[in-house]
Amino acid sequence: MQDRAAQLFRDLQSSYCDALESIDGEGVFQEERWDRADISGSWGGGGVSRLLKPGRIFEQAGVNFSLVHGVLPSEMVNKLIGEQEEREFLATGVSLVIHPHSPHIPTIHLNFRYLEVSSKAWFGGGIDLTPYVFHPEDFGHFHSTLKKACDQWDPACYERYKRWCDEYFYLPHRQEARGVGGIFFDYRGRDNDEDLETSFDFVKGVSSYFLESYLPIISRQRLTPFSEKMKRFQLLRRGRYVEFNLLYDRGTLFGLKTGGRVASVFMSMPPEAQWAPVEGYPSDCADSALLEVLSTPRSWIEEGGSTLSCKE
Amino acid sequence: MQDRAAQLFRDLQSSYCDALESIDGEGVFQEERWDRADISGSWGGGGVSRLLKPGRIFEQAGVNFSLVHGVLPSEMVNKLIGEQEEREFLATGVSLVIHPHSPHIPTIHLNFRYLEVSSKAWFGGGIDLTPYVFHPEDFGHFHSTLKKACDQWDPACYERYKRWCDEYFYLPHRQEARGVGGIFFDYRGRDNDEDLETSFDFVKGVSSYFLESYLPIISRQRLTPFSEKMKRFQLLRRGRYVEFNLLYDRGTLFGLKTGGRVASVFMSMPPEAQWAPVEGYPSDCADSALLEVLSTPRSWIEEGGSTLSCKE
User: Fold this and answer.
1) Residues of chain A contacting residue B270, judged by C-beta atoms under 8 Å apart
2) What is the sign, positive or negative, of the torsion defined by CA atoms of A68, A74, A78, A81?
3) Confidence (pTM)
4) With a cut of 50, which residues of chain A have pLDDT below it?
5) Residue-wise over B224-235: b if at least 16 C-beta within 10 A, else e?
6) How does DSSP classify residue A301?
7) What are the pLDDT digits (tens) for A191-210?
8) Which of A69, A101, A104, A109 is catalytic?
């Protein structure tokens, strides 16, 4: 399964990059390979980072593949499988974070991963959207596509994974969601709730819908004019994105603690972010409709249309 | 001691603000008062936040006073005094963070605080400098002034507190110091190593040297022209400042965990920061002399002059 999972994630990296280059029309991905030194002293795998910046649409887009292995510190082992000792581990995954120039086009994050720790193995992942302007039809399209994907491979999981996503991407100190969510799941297959083969099929199936969930939003919004206030609000909201990544995100902290390449772990960071020293947001730039749904997550399946097609 | 410590910190807030307004010449501090709800449900104190932004010299300057009390979660009690249960606590302090426009003028951070947890009481604090351009004479002036202050009230502590500062303001994942340090100390008086009266005198004495340590640097650098590359490097280094605050800073995490006012806790955040998705820094803007001292902290007492005076 290690090999098949790694191959799937490599293939996803390629197909995502091709499609993103194509829609950007200008930016080209640069590739960097890196090696990881394991805490045991031996070679601990590595990764292939692909970075596009800045393009016509994307201010920064990173699509990373990694396959790392070695000895996992007992603290991490405890968190992942509840055992108390150092264990051998292997992790492979694909991660994507896109920060577009225009505030009309949301930031998007995707991650799919396969882990083996001691005798346990499982898949996890998710896709979530962080918008800067309230465009309910786009959020509806995004969620409808994810629901369609989930329904095809595991009916009934969409609602659960949508809730999990809302709970995970939440900033308690701000009492605010990071964005309008998506899906998030972990530990598929770990506790023998299903065989790994089925988990693999689910991940392969759902990940194949990513482009359909996101590209139509770009096509629809790429020429929409935006104001300085919208840009200011985007930069402030990107500050919250940074807060989430550094205070709460398990992927970021896992990467830093297991000696991942810092530039690759931090490709999720926006090229530019701002903070305003006020409670909430400055009233002159805040998108109140968006803030409303950030403070109270809601369903996007009925309200938004799911009628956008993937063609431009 | 509660009252006297709180009064000292209020007075420091006032005198720091007056001096900063005076040297900026344009910005005026705005004051906001806030109340804190304790986890026990009762009133838990509050604070007075003063914020100047943006002025002629300062892009953002915050000087906060707070006096909070109530019940401290057992996890925090354990960290502070090694006991395992919820305890009554009181904390009062003054914090200051200044982000100047010009990369020639360093960001500065100051904090002095008094804590009571259960039957223990102690003082802590520090002052540290985060420069963006290598100006060894300024770093020398800064450290010499702090050494003079320490020597007057507790000879021999400067070296220890300088090292403590270098160790505390360090980003392991970047293998880089936050800046050129200063002094940092904690738990003065907690373990009956000295009486609280002596700790109080030390804090009062050292804090009175803050303006002398910083204002002459402003006077010397305020008109120095800077390039776009220097500004870019400042914004990238501010990104690291954000990383430190959210990943490691105990004050920030203490504030968030004890229900402090988020806008006050986060007044340390820069108004604007950037990230570059590369290892280290982009070579076209990095100040290599500065990076050298960030990767290997050194003494600033002999090298730099301490001849700058506080007069403009």
Assistant:
1) 275
2) positive
3) 0.92
4) 303-312
5) eebeeebbbbbb
6) T
7) 878 899 999 999 999 999 99
8) A109
